[in-house]
């Protein structure tokens, strides 16, 4: 189970890293042109960059605390925060009728829930 949780955290961290880099460094006008990025036209550039930074922090929070042995309890906390972020993403895409992206966000939410449950209950990191 420990290996499955590490793999899930690694994959979700890659998703968060990818989204975080694009939202932090790609201009929102360019993001709006991509399929599923139309929502960025409705919000400020600062908001998009803030989401990008949160996703970068999530990528770090899913891996580094446990890998370095420094506050590994932050891993499931980060997973819970990702769940909240995905709820917001599902609402945003749902309002826009982008149901394929809602489904994708549900998958990401499920992976984060698995990590949170696994690290809070099944195989918590022990000091």
Automatic annotation (TrEMBL):
One of its GO terms (cellular component) is membrane. It is a multi-pass membrane protein. InterPro entries: DoxX (IPR032808). The chain crosses the membrane at residues 56-87, 99-122. Coiled coil: none annotated. It comes from the Bacteria. It is found in: Membrane. Keywords: Membrane, Transmembrane, Transmembrane helix. Its main location: membrane. It holds the Pfam family DoxX_2. This is DoxX family protein. The lineage of its organism: Bacteria, Bacillati, Actinomycetota, Actinomycetes, Streptosporangiales.
């Amino acid at each position: 189970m420990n290996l499955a949780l590490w793999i899930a955290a690694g994959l979700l961290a890659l998703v968060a890293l990818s989204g975080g880099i694009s939202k932090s460094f790609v201009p929102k006008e360019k993001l709006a042109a991509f399929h599923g990025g139309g929502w960025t036209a409705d919000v400020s550039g600062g908001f998009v960059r803030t989401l990008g930074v949160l996703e970068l922090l999530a990528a770090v929070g899913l891996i580094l605390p446990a890998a370095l042995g420094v506050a590994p309890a932050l891993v499931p906390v980060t997973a819970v925060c990702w769940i909240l972020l995905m709820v917001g993403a599902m609402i945003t895409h749902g309002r826009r009728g982008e149901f394929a992206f809602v489904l994708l966000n549900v998958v990401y939410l499920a992976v984060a829930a698995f990590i949170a449950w696994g690290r809070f209950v099944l195989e918590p990191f022990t000091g």
